[in-house]
Design a protein that fits this description.
Chain B: Residues 25-250 form the Phosphoadenosine phosphosulphate reductase domain. The complex is a heterodimer of chains A (415) and B (296). Chain A is α+β, with helices and mostly antiparallel strands and 415 residues long. Chain A is built from seven helices and 21 strands. Chain A has three domains: 3-207, Rossmann fold, CATH 3.40.50; 220-303, Elongation Factor Tu (Ef-tu), domain 3; 309-414, Translation factors (Elongation Factor Tu (Ef-tu), domain 3), CATH 2.40.30.10. Chain A is globular. Chain B is an alpha/beta fold and 296 residues long. In chain B, the strands form two sheets. Chain B has a six-stranded mixed beta sheet, with helices on both faces. A four-stranded antiparallel barrel of chain B has the order 7-8-10-9. The chains are: A alpha+beta (415), B alpha/beta (296). At the A-B interface, helix 2, helix 3, strand 2, helix 4 and strand 7 of A face helix 1 and helix 2 of B.
Chain lengths: 415, 296
Amino acid sequence: MDILKFLTAGSVDDGKSTLIGRLLYDTDSVLADQLEAIQKSNRKNDDGTVDLAILTDGLKAEREQGITIDVAYKYFQTEKRKFIIADTPGHIQYTRNMVTGASNADLAIILIDARKGVIEQTIRHSYLVSLLALEHVVVCVNKMDMVDYSEEVFEKIHADYHELATKLGIHEVTFIPVSALRGDNIVNDSAQMPWYKGKSLLAHLETVPVHEVDNLLPARMAVQWVVRPQTDDLHDYRGYAGRVLSGAFRIGEEVKIFPSGNKSKIERLETFDGDLQIAEEGKSITLHLEDEIDISRGDIIGEIERSPLVSNQIEADICWMDTRELDTSATYLIQHQSKVTRCKIKEVLYKVNINTLEKINADTFGLNDIGRVEIKTADELAFDPYETNKRNGGAIIIDSRTNVTVGALMLRAAL
Amino acid sequence: MDYLDQLEAEAIAILREVAGQFEKPALLFSGGKDSITLVRLAEKAFRPGKFPFPLVHVDTGHNFPEVIEFRDRMVKRIGEKLIVGHVQDAIDSGRAIEQKGKNASRNALQTVTLLETIEKNQFDACIGGARRDEEKARAKERIFSVRDEFGQWDPKRQRPELWNTFNGKIHKGENVRVFPISNWTELDVWNYIKRENIEIPSIYYSHKRDVIERNGVWMAAHEFLNMDADDKIYNKSVRFRTVGDMTCTAAVESEKTEIDDIILEISQSKISERGARMDDKVSEAAMEDRKKGGYF
């Protein structure tokens, strides 16, 4: 059994909370004490049934202010798979939260109100999904009960969205007509739409293939910690602890250290449970090299053949996440994997109007703005272009005055 | 990758980030199954080296004796340092005031001792075993959660947390609470304990015990609970699903003495884990309020 991480994109009016509530409720994931709490609540649907949206209700601090603060994670499982939902709120800070939620998701569910079709908000959500390079998109055309379960309405939205997805370079899209309120095609197949031959949402989520180890990607590991016990019996022990970001490492294979460019051979791939012959993507290991070379935390170990880009001048897409505007004269910190160095965001190339996808001129970025920038870093970074290997292509910007994470970067090219 | 391997690899990577980013981290050890799981994960992250942090236990003085015995034995086995902060010390010196009445518990007082222990040892990161599936305030918690010098959690000031890139930068006096098993569920922890054959305190398994009924749940009969003549004592076969101190941890009736049976019982259970915690029953936002006050 594996884990699927997904995010739901849509505003309150699209029935996002009801959809999540329905998934939890119909998979029996709501426990008695939680159910008791919602049954006691005064919030009911028009027909007197419990309002499943309550299951995603947030904190007292949020209710007092009538807003959702940020991403909430929900967990459920079926016999086939475990699921982690990143439930991101729908208000003004949505972009920041959706980017955060999407950075760790395998799949995005985009909700479209059947009565409204593809609207500005759909474009915005889909743009973010393509920016963060999510592999899978499911478009749930919701509120089908409000349009008499019409195949024609569904097909029109299907065609409109297909056009948008092509424009954005989103390749894998699955369309499902649903009613979260009535439970049609969420967990149970709908009797109301015999014209729909596909799977219910849950059946799709249970079977869509994700994170099968992609051995086509180049081998990368970021060194997080150098293990040097320096005890009598482990006097010469030196291991590089980290997680395989992408690809696979094999014993005896030659590797290169970045940014230094030094080479060595893999001697051991150690884990607490015994040595490995091959360490694949996702594994946390301790790697040993044949030669004693200078390696420290933050360095990238990679294969010889396909090197990462190594540069201190980088072009990147940025999502600004702070209420304080970007200051192009200030020095920030940039964190890529386990490496932190100083940087300046030297130039704003353009900003994207994420509702129309237009590129516009800009000098700076405010909260939730997205666009392209040129960055100069104090030390060189060893990265892969985000679109080819996102496991080694993302970085964050930290304001050194406040220590807050103020920007997300999708690294694109070395200049 | 199997889900337990995936969760394990993520937790190991988080622990190694703590080692790399902080000067004086600590692992908060309660003696419960979640923190015992953290110890196993730390072994996986740092062996054959030593842990780059001590274990810290906040002892309310009302712990189950089985848990304290287990703690000392485990610490000896792994050969790591243990620091114990005593709530009793805070009470004796007047920095904490004991609650009165039947529902009195030292649970809330733990925060005083925790914050004092953090300050005294100048810990800049505290690793804890909290999980997001436990409670809705925890569902919004970061893996690296920054606290101010009063230990306060401010949900509005949380940093966005992207990819597996953790920002642990803090100002002097602040500290970070780190939750490596954020993405695990209760069942995941149990399945991992089974897979790894990890020893846990005996009170997690069914045993005969004198219990009394308090607010609709069974509590261990003990002088710590301020019992009086109205409390009727029953002898029942019970086990504990979480391990806090005796005054706030309710028992569930159970005949299960094998881990497989316990896993089955939990997967079929209709009550959430924290439903057995008196500390969350106080009000709907009990956890949220305690976290803002420095609870972990």
